[in-house]
Amino acid sequence: MNHHEQSAVSRRGFLRAVGVSGGAGAMLATMGALGLAPSAATSAVPAFRAPTRSDFNLTGRSGARVVVLGGGVAGLAVAYELGKAGYDCTVLEARSRAGGRNLTIRGGSVETDLDGHTQRANFSDGVYFNAGPGRIAQWMVTMDYCRELGVPVEVFTNANADAWIYNESAGMTAPVRYRTAKADVYGYVSELLAKATDQGALDDRLSAEDKQRLLSFLQSYGAIGGRTGGWAYTGTSRRGYLEYPGAGNDEGVPLGAPPALADVFASNVGRYFAFETGYDQAMLMFQPVGGMDQIPKALAKAVGLQRIQLGAEVTGVTDRGGRVEVTYRQGGRDRIVRADFCVATMPPHLMARVPHNLGTGVTAALAGFPATASGKIGLEYRSRWWELDQRIYGGITETDLDLSHIWYPSSGFHGRRGLIVGYYNTGSNARTYSALTPLQRAERAVAQGVKIHGDKYRTELATSYSHAWDRTRYLEGAWTSPPHGTAGYNLLLQPAGRVYFAGDWLSHETAWQHGSFVSARTVVTALHQRVMAD
Amino acid sequence: MNHHEQSAVSRRGFLRAVGVSGGAGAMLATMGALGLAPSAATSAVPAFRAPTRSDFNLTGRSGARVVVLGGGVAGLAVAYELGKAGYDCTVLEARSRAGGRNLTIRGGSVETDLDGHTQRANFSDGVYFNAGPGRIAQWMVTMDYCRELGVPVEVFTNANADAWIYNESAGMTAPVRYRTAKADVYGYVSELLAKATDQGALDDRLSAEDKQRLLSFLQSYGAIGGRTGGWAYTGTSRRGYLEYPGAGNDEGVPLGAPPALADVFASNVGRYFAFETGYDQAMLMFQPVGGMDQIPKALAKAVGLQRIQLGAEVTGVTDRGGRVEVTYRQGGRDRIVRADFCVATMPPHLMARVPHNLGTGVTAALAGFPATASGKIGLEYRSRWWELDQRIYGGITETDLDLSHIWYPSSGFHGRRGLIVGYYNTGSNARTYSALTPLQRAERAVAQGVKIHGDKYRTELATSYSHAWDRTRYLEGAWTSPPHGTAGYNLLLQPAGRVYFAGDWLSHETAWQHGSFVSARTVVTALHQRVMAD
């Protein structure tokens, strides 16, 4: 019994206990509150159970030979899970390392993009740059794989009260800290709602008791005055201080009175607040210690490095009825691998270009997944001035500049050097940057970052490395927006003869490793059931 | 030039740069936004500058002999900073280890409280329990000391969307996750304010443009419908899922429709939301890796262990005019130490009992600081069921039970065992627990925690250790509420002859190590100036 099963069992045990003491209503409420899976009868998908060697005992069956196209997270997870039962898997990966879009750049990393730009990362020892996925939510199955594979995790700093907000297009001439922006928005929202409530404007919706409770909440939430003060928001220590309180009679120097209500809403700082409440982005978020690629590294090790062919570009897939033949080119030579089954986890728009005999419907379906552009730049600094000068220990600065997001590092606090993600953008903003040379990208990102952080953003810069996913060979995109519900999408959820498809692009969590893992598990389950029924 | 000075210089440089390009208004706005110190002219307190050996060069002066009463954070910081310039410090600490209320319990820790209860911690290797301070805000000078002393820090998980809220007295029969509670409260608040705004109830406060911006914000913030839908909040994925989205066509099973507005406000879950916006509690927060006592350990090492007398109970302080004599009892023998100056950092209500010749005004002033009760219990579990079963990786569960807060561990994720702080309470709730035996405290805490977490809260428990600060020898309290602004408080900010007073109790950040450090720095500065002027 693996730990997933243990968890499932113990959840059920807990729910039974709650059910006994609290009745069905309490049990349902608890389930909802716990975010637990409903019972098997209502569950959309049964819990994953990895194939095991014991599945084949006494049946005379054994693990089949499987060729996996693509050594990203989905492909590695397929080989890993099938490998538990003794399947003989071969992973074909076109790039020079496994992991796919789970890519961590360190000093010495070299890559030439589709435009011929070659970059060599000159990062210092211990400095890394997660060019692909950077965060994991607590509920994601990615966390379970980290645990199972022995990949330690630490907090990813997805939100920080001391990070900046800077909306240039809204007329802001200086950045404002999240804590200040929140205090002011929550303050004015509370003031307005308290006034309307107290004046009876919502009496058709609120009982007298509701009103009292709401007003009490708003006074706490917004730090506003009471009725006699007109429920006014006039500022709060939550805005932060020019100088924080100190010794003796030093009460500190508060930031002072807030801007006028109209100015606060005109600055549009509130547009970023919902992010932190997203089911997939709310803190706490996590990352592997030492770089996101610790996950594919651990997967690859568990699969067996000898099973993973690197630099292996797939050139053809042929279903022969009783077996599958996959041709690929590696080291200048054409090769072939024959297997009982194939699992194709390559990006769909690239798989669509691979010659195959699976039917034109498959090709059309694969071509129906659009590729999203996204890019990041890693800026290594000679000092951690953001910690020393600005007291920002991690988190994300949000902007309406074309760099979009700036990430401060979630580890190595107080270290000598550190790496800031100087832009993380998508769509047209990403394409703006990917059209530039790596040097131009760095210049553009730094010029904008200086507006927020001051000169050190330029003067302390040691080196940089940018990654444009749309211009990356063998990937050509960051992620897709799957055509959920279309006939094409559904077609690829079924095997085409002996060829299965898997990847985050066949899930409802695209762009997350969670999506890769759950898709891999689904295919592993289907393939294993087929073998067991054979 | 130490790094604090460097920071100050670079901040000024940055401000100058902003001032040049943006004018004085922009500069002021930037300063406010940055949370930077105002210029020396308006600064309440000049930046701290540690004494150095070079201060004595060419002047013929040298560091004086100083006896420090109390080896907590303030006392150690005084000895550490004075030691940089060659002052000859002796620290007298009554307890068996330095650190004062900065106390980390590990396996083997033994202590007998004022009621004669002896506890021996049976925690496993690597498991620790911060019985005293547990968190540090980014802006606190405590962070600078961690950096300077080489104490690595990591995120303290002060808030987690997947932690629970449980208000038993409000009629809740099951806990609710923060993410769910926030989605519902923000949703209904947004709905109500959008309705009132759109109906013109706030037209005297809002321009047409304000209204449009506010409505746009509320739709994003509350995930509410538009005008045609009556701005209604009907739930959102932010509430969380029974089953999170998966592969293929698995969109997941959302938690579903929210409770009615009246029920949400009746549950009073919103009372906890303001905590996360506090200037001293907003995430990101930090802790030393491996236990909060890494700070006093590093301080003590830097001071020199030979300078710290443990088990040394101060029995008298006499100012002889030209010197100070402090008598103490150690190992059953009466001892004396003579010094040029004394810095008393003991808890004021205990210092008030020490015989001295500093005047009755000093005694009365010291006695004017009330002692606050507070307690915690560390519950070590055989498994990290909160991570495995409930997907809670750190954070704090808030309750209206007398246990108040439950802390999940901020480190050791996915480890074999882990320690939950099963209660952290103050005042009457703390006294309720401190009146119990350690076993009774554990039983009470577990019985309440089971209501939230289910049976594993009891069945997986391995061992526990509780700490009641009001019943702790040589401390007799967790912290104080200083009588700021009184003549007594101000009296103790000045030296009584050759005796200075320091501690978080003489600051505006009582109960925080920041308060201890800034108070220590103030006294170090004053004492050093006196020596230099002598």
Automatic annotation (TrEMBL), chains A, B:
This is Monoamine oxidase. Pfam families: Amino_oxidase. Keywords: Oxidoreductase. Residues 73-526 form the Amine oxidase domain. InterPro entries: Amino_oxidase, FAD/NAD-bd_sf, Flavin_monoamine_oxidase, TAT_signal. GO terms for biological process: amino acid catabolic process. It comes from Plantactinospora soyae. Transmembrane segments: none annotated. Its EC number is 1.4.3.4.
